[in-house]
Amino acid sequence: MSQCVYCKQRKGKRPCPALGGLICSPCCGEHRIVRVSCPSDCVYLDSGSDYQQKRLSEQFMPLRRDFYRELSEFGGNKAVALFNLIEVVTFSYFERRRDGQDAEVVAAIQALRRTLSPLHVPSAPMPVFAEHLKKEYEAFKKQNPEQIADSSNAPEILDRAIKFVSDFSGKDFQSRRFLGGLIGYVKTYHPHIAEHLQKKHEPGHIVLPGQSFMPPPAPETHTHGPECEHHHH
Question: Do 114 and 158 fall within a single domain?
Fold first, then answer.
C-alpha cells in the first residue's frame, strides 16, 4: 500500500503536488497551506481554505488579543493604531492572493522599521508589499499625524510586531499561518469589516475600521488621561 507522504502512517489517497506523492485526506485537510506549500491550482485547495482559515483564526484570536494588550501598555493608542494599520493593509492586499506568504509580511514590517529608524540609510528597492505598506503608513500619518506611532517609538513597536507575526507563522520557510489566521479572523469575527476592505481602494484611502476591529478593551484598566478618546466625543 502507498503510505501517506506526510504522516507515513495512513494510506495516501490524494495526489499532493507540493509533496510529490500521495497524501491521506486527514493530513491534506489539516496541513494544507498551513504546513504544506500548496500550489494555487491544486484541486483540493478551494474546498478547504475557508475551513482552514477559520481553524487558524480560532488559534489566532487569543494571541492577537494578548498582543494588543501588550502594545497598548507599551505605547498606548498610537502603538495599537500602527499595528491595526498593518493588519488592515495586509488583509486588503493578501485576501485574494493564494500565493502570499508570511515572509512577505515580515519583510514589509522590517522595511517600514528601517524607514522609520533615525539611522535610516536607503537601501535596495523594496519588495512590492513593503512599498505598499510604507505608502499606506505615510498616507495615514499625513491625514492623522497625532493618531499613529512615529519614528520616536515605532521601531520598537515594529520589533514587537515582527516577533508576533514570526512566532505565529512558525518555522516553515513558506508558511502562510499568519496570513491564514489574520484573514480568517477578520472574515469570521468582523464580516462587515471584511466586506468593506474587500472593495478596491486607492492607496491611502483605506479607511481604518476603528475600534470595532480591535479586541474589546478590559474595562477595569481604563484611566482617563490625555490619550483617552472619551473627552473628544
Answer: yes
